[in-house]
Structures are given as structure tokens and as C-alpha cells.
Write a structure and sequence with these properties.
- With about 100 residues, this protein is α+β, with helices and mostly antiparallel strands.
- It has a single domain, classed as RRM (RNA recognition motif) domain (Alpha-Beta Plaits, 2-Layer Sandwich), CATH 3.30.70.330.
- The protein is about 20% helix and about 40% strand.
- The protein has three helices and six strands, in the order αβαβαββββ.
- Strands 1-2-6-3 form a four-stranded antiparallel beta sheet. The protein has a two-stranded antiparallel ribbon with strand order 4-5.
- The chain is elongated, with a radius of gyration of 16 Å.
Length: about 100
């Protein structure tokens, strides 16, 4: 069981995620569930969550040069959180 303070790792701020209205993207712990993400967002930001979508990005291996150096990208998990209409979220405001 993951505590609510360890669920959210970092917000994902890109052009694509900022363009969505009412939806915010977070990088979350790999063992986090939709319910734990919703509870963590509600406790940190004080907003009502209506929907949570989870995206898993698998670990990838990459060879650099002529097979000399192998870089590994870790497995990531992102959560796209939809808020109640009329509510906004500022990543700089933690409660």
C-alpha cells in the first residue's frame, strides 16, 4: 500500500498536456491505482476529481554508438486527471 504522499512524483508539463482544458497529467508511482491518485490529488490540491486515466510506458533499452553503450529508460506510469467543471489546478500550490 502506497501512502498518498508518495503517489504523485511530478507534474508533466508539455505543450500537449497544457493544451487540454480541465485535464492535468502527473507522473505517478508504478504501483499507484486510480483511487489512490484521485485521493492524492484531492488531498494535495483540494479539488474534486471526476476521472483518472492511467498510461504505462514500458522500460526501453537503447544502444548508443556501435553497440558500445546501452542506456535503459525506466518504466514510467502517468495519470491523466480530469477535474470537475469550473475547477483549475496550479502546480505551484500545495496544501
Amino acid at each position: 500500500m502506497i501512502s498518498t504522499s508518495n503517489v504523485l512524483i511530478a507534474p508533466v508539463v508539455t505543450e500537449k498536456t497544457v493544451a487540454q482544458t480541465g485535464k492535468y497529467t502527473f507522473q505517478v508511482h508504478t504501483g499507484a491505482s486510480k483511487d489512490s491518485v484521485a485521493k492524492a490529488v484531492k488531498s494535495f490540491y483540494g479539488v474534486d476529481v471526476t476521472n483518472v486515466n492511467i498510461v504505462r510506458l514500458p522500460a526501453k533499452t537503447r544502444v548508443v554508438g556501435r553497440g558500445r553503450l546501452i542506456n535503459k529508460r525506466p518504466e514510467l506510469k502517468k495519470a491523466i486527471v480530469t477535474l470537475k467543471t469550473g475547477q483549475t489546478l496550479n502546480f505551484n500550490d500545495f496544501k
